[in-house]
Amino acid sequence: MIPFAEARQFVLDRCEPLAPAERSLNDALGAVLAFDAVAAEAVPPFANSGMDGYAVRAADVAAAAEGRPVRLRVAGTIAAGAAPDIAVTPGVAVRIMTGAPIPPGADAVVMVERSERVGDNEVDLTQAAPFGLHVRAAGDDVPAGTQVVAAGTRLHPAHLGVLASVNIRRPMVVPRPRVGVISTGDELVDDGRALAPGQIRESNRPTLVAALRSYGFDAVDLGTVADDHHALTQALPAAAAAYDAVVTSGGVSMGDFDLVKVVLEELADMRWMQIDIRPAKPFAFGVLNGTPVFGLPGNPVSSLVSLSLLGVPGLRRRAGRADLDLPQVTARAGSGLGRRPDGRTAYLRVRCRWADGGLVAEPVGQQGSHHLAATATANALAVLPDGDGVAEGGQVTVVLLHDPFVT
To answer: Across the chain, which distance is largest between two alpha carbons, in Å?
Structure first.
């Protein structure tokens, strides 16, 4: 067996970041910004009103108060998006809407709740408005020339809004990797037909595609390929040519009869590993015509654990991310997390919940590498070094597969 750290580093060394590319804002969510984003213009580009109300000169309403209104002539109205073509002169107010440009001569806004119209063209104001009240100055959010998003930032929704606000509509990013997912094996059935003797329903590919998408990658289901030499020699290079990475499941164990192993040996620079972890001991990784290929085990839980622990770091590096691994936090064992000594690190499927000021981890039930139904209730992997496990109430490191605060 080889150490897990060695296998992880082997993957990382061969997963080069994708080249930066221009993307629309609609397609940039989750991508990593390749270069600093600098505002070429101020936000807002002009002084505007933060309230519906009246644009005034502060000096004209200095004495205004409840029960002692100041009456001004209303010269007109400025709506959001309109030009500020009405000047505010002594004794004059202009009706103004939120976001509308401050008219020439005005230096404050009295909110509409502190006003009362008098006839068609006058208003009583009952609030003293100091200079700048409810006025959002030009550049108040972003001065021109400001770096608004740093290179290396993974773009979240608010980042995209900021980029739009400074007219960066097609940022240069390290794209989200497109990952082709293939299942292999004559025993797999995924078209709804009745099972023949020795056949099983295909579950790995739907699981892996969904997991990849939940981790921020663009996964594409490439279907099941039979254990046929010609079919595999066609499908694997085609996937490597079309996608930024390829994930296969099945055919990586020692002594396996699956042809995927034979074909990948012929076509790619592969390394077949037995790693000191449980589950997911068998794992393969290599490069096919410049494209990383992740060979995951066929057992569904092992396949998912391999993807989470080894696939995610490699694909995140491909995506240009600095945070390569899924988050690890400390939790309290809500009940005993037992295991048997075997020279490997065990990854126990657990469900974490928040209780008494911290995360509590509970095992989800059956822990075999084929027990996918039990794994479906897990949101984390408890990391148990070789030994007897963790007693109830003990501290344990967990790898978060999903947000424990989202049910």
So the answer is: 93
Element containing residue 160 per DSSP (H, E): helix 157-165
Q: In the prediction, which pLDDT does 407 show?
A: 67
pTM score of the predicted model: 0.87
Token duo for residue 289: 């015509």
Which residues, in sequence order, are bridge partners of residue 399?
Answer: 328, 381
Please tell me the predicted confidence (pLDDT) of residue 374: 63
In tens, the pLDDT along 124-162 reads 999 999 999 999 999 999 999 999 999 999 999 999 999
Nearest CA among 383, 381, 384, 385 for reference residue 402: 381
Which domain-ending residue is among 118, 136, 154?
136
Do 74 and 13 share a structural domain? no
Supply the mean pLDDT for the chain: 92
Q: Where are the alpha helices (DSSP H) in 292-378?
A: 300-306, 312-318, 372-375
- How far, in Å, CA of 24 to CA of 17, rounded? 20
Residues 212 and 311 in one domain: yes
Structural domain including 150 reads 26-43+140-173
Exposed e or buried b for every residue in 262-296, given b needs 16+ CB within 10 A? bbbeebbebbbbebbbbbbbbbbbbbbeebbbbbb
In a domain, 405, yes or no: no
* CATH code, domain with 371: 2.40.340.10
Do the bridges between strand 70-78 and strand 122-125 make them parallel or antiparallel, or are there none, so unpaired? antiparallel
Q: Say how many domains are in the chain.
A: 4
Considering the domain architecture, whether residues 167 and 217 belong to the same structural domain is answered as no
Note whether 250 and 279 are same-domain residues.
yes
Q: If 0-12 CB within 10 Å is exposed, 13-18 middle and 19+ buried, where does residue 118 land?
A: middle
- Rounded to whole angstroms, the Cα distance separating 310 from 10 reads 10
Residue 116 bridge partners (DSSP):
124
What gap in Å lies between CA 294 and CA 306, rounded to an integer? 9
Same domain, 295 and 343: no
Residue-wise pLDDT for 168-196, tens only, equals 999 999 999 999 999 877 666 678 787 77
Q: 76-98, pLDDT tens digit by residue? A: 999 999 999 999 999 999 999 99
Q: Specify if 366 maps to a domain.
A: yes
Query: Domain of 101: which CATH number?
Result: 2.170.190.11
Q: CATH no. for residue 39?
A: 3.90.105.10
